Amino acid sequence: MKTAIVTGASSGIGRAVALELARKGWRLGLVGRDAERLAQVAEACGRVVQTAAMDMRDTAAFAGFVAGFGAVDLYVSNHGILDGRREGETVETGAVASDVLAINLTSAVAALHAVLPGMQARGQGQIALVSSLAGLSPLPDAPAYSASKAGLVMYGLSLREALRGTGVGVSVCCPGYVATPMQAEHLGNRPHEIKPEDAARRIVKQALANTRLFGFPAPLWPMALFSLLIPEGLLRLFNGNLRFTVKKR
Ligand SMILES: NC(=O)c1ccc[n+]([C@@H]2O[C@H](COP(=O)([O-])OP(=O)(O)OC[C@H]3O[C@@H](n4cnc5c(N)ncnc54)[C@H](OP(=O)(O)O)[C@@H]3O)[C@@H](O)[C@H]2O)c1
Fold it and tell me: What domains, with CATH codes, occur in the chain?
């Protein structure tokens, strides 16, 4: 039986990835913060599932979970938060930026190093990092979110090259707008939004094919890829329609 650990599995894309892998008959390790929602996902999976409710910033706790789980064929690093500028602010606060970077980037990089040694020892395994189109195209309303996702793109692509020939693959995934609870925080337009199940199918398919870098949906992916090359005025024109604020908590 193939095995996978999915972080951020208690909601949205991670939940849908768990269900997709369960349908394929995989044994799952699911991590999130909310124990109750995590248990509901495990029940919906109806497979051999281990769950752990923890904050991914606690790398030692995550390493303990990985050690107890055993060999991992696929690791989907998906946990993350969206935060940024609130209504009335020009830019996000420093406190918001620090939290976003700590969860989305620092904890994600630290956690994958809890999984990697086992994969290297076995000479096989696949790591999928869930980044975002915002990791390629700058978001003026959530600079730290954009930076955290850009960090994941570059960490993942660098790691992939470093691991070439070892049997361990790395894929980086850049979704556009996906209709999950995270988007309830996003107050603005969300063109070409897709369902989490659709995102999950694409993530699992491309990760298992060891695709280097992929993104969706089609209309936004090429725009994001070219965003660093096109003139600033053109990007501003396009992004004008995509400005947003984050809901006050
Ligand atoms: N939705 C989109 O449009 C979109 C687009 C591009 C990329 N993404 C990325 O896709 C990933 C999943 O997002 P989503 O849309 O599915 O959002 P979501 O429904 O809000 O789910 C986020 C998941 O991350 C977990 N999480 C957040 N902070 C955590 C922490 N400190 N420790 C442990 N777990 C934590 C949450 O756990 P709890 O709920 O249990 O707290 C939840 O399971 C994120 O990395 C996000 O940046 C989303």
Answer: 3-246 (3.40.50.720)
